[in-house]
From TrEMBL:
Keywords: Phosphoprotein. Residues 51-79 are annotated as: Disordered. The keyword Methyltransferase does not apply. It comes from the Eukaryota. The keyword Protein biosynthesis does not apply. It comes from Aspergillus cavernicola. This is Signal transduction histidine kinase dimerisation/phosphoacceptor domain-containing protein. PANTHER family: HISTIDINE KINASE_RESPONSE REGULATOR, PUTATIVE (AFU_ORTHOLOGUE AFUA_8G06140)-RELATED (PTHR43719:SF72), TWO-COMPONENT HISTIDINE KINASE (PTHR43719). Pfam families: HisKA. Residues 156-221 form the Signal transduction histidine kinase dimerisation/phosphoacceptor domain. The lineage of its organism: Eukaryota, Fungi, Dikarya, Ascomycota, Pezizomycotina.
Length: 248
């Protein structure tokens, strides 16, 4: 949470004391379910929603102790009243509250909710500008989140391949060595065909594992090379800016 306005901003050296930090997970899940495209609420000074279609009083929350599943059964009108009172509870004295859900495409589920609010009535959020901008920012955040998740997943896969390959290769070498010792025995035609099948399958599997390891190493080297080029380019740009600033 980032803000410079009272009553949300904590004092120097003090922990964050905003009620928003205690936002109920069940309430957030209901908002994600009901407002999947985001929502903007405007309030008067007395805590009443200023929208003409949602103009209702903000009583003390009568559903505060209800479970999320029980709140869902209270009906649309009662839910609006509950929603209004809980928003006033978590964002006291807020003139406007803006909510944007964040969708994780990799897992096909909502995972976070973003809230923006202000306590100055003359600073107006609008759906066409503020809500759209935060929705765009949320999409950018989730793209970056997915990129980091992909990098973590690739790193885990490489670690798994490197860890398991040694064990599997040791077992394969044992199988192939045992098959080689058996080949020196007097075997009939059927036994010889079985031994040839063991040799062929073992060597094919060993070659496949070697190719997988080689591919993993190549991908890792390409990624390191790409990162090195990016760092070199960034360093050159920074050096160019410093030289230009020195001439100025």
């Amino acid at each position: 949470m980032s803000t410079n306005e009272e009553p949300f901003a904590p004092g120097p050296g003090l922990p964050v004391v905003s009620p928003a930090t205690n936002l109920n997970i069940g309430f957030l899940q209901q908002l994600l379910r009901r407002h999947s495209k985001g929502k903007l609420w405007s309030f008067h000074q007395d805590g009443v929603i200023s929208n003409s279609d949602e103009n209702m009083e903000s009583p003390k929350n009568p559903f505060r102790n209800l479970k999320p599943s029980e709140r869902a059964k209270t009906g649309p009108r009662k839910w609006k009243s509950t929603e209004n009172s809980m928003l006033n509870e978590y964002f006291p004295n807020a003139a406007q509250v803006l909510f944007v859900p964040l969708w994780n495409a990799a897992n096909s589920q909502w995972i976070w909710g973003c809230f923006c609010w202000n306590s100055v009535e003359t600073r107006v959020f609008t759906s066409s500008i503020a809500l759209s901008s935060v929705l765009g920012s949320g999409s950018s955040i989730m793209v970056e989140h997915s990129r980091h998740e992909s990098l973590i997943s690739d790193r885990q896969k490489r670690h798994f391949i490197g860890s398991i390959s040694h064990e599997l290769r040791s077992l394969l070498h044992g199988i192939l060595a045992a098959a080689k010792f058996l080949s020196g025995r007097n075997l009939d035609e059927f036994q010889g065909s079985l031994l040839e099948a063991i040799n062929a399958c073992g060597r094919t599997l060993l070659d496949t594992m070697d190719q997988v390891l080689d591919f993993s190493k190549i991908v890792s080297l390409e990624r390191k090379s790409r990162q090195l080029r990016q760092n070199t380019k960034q360093s050159r740009l920074e050096l160019k800016d410093e030289v230009s600033a020195g001439f100025d």
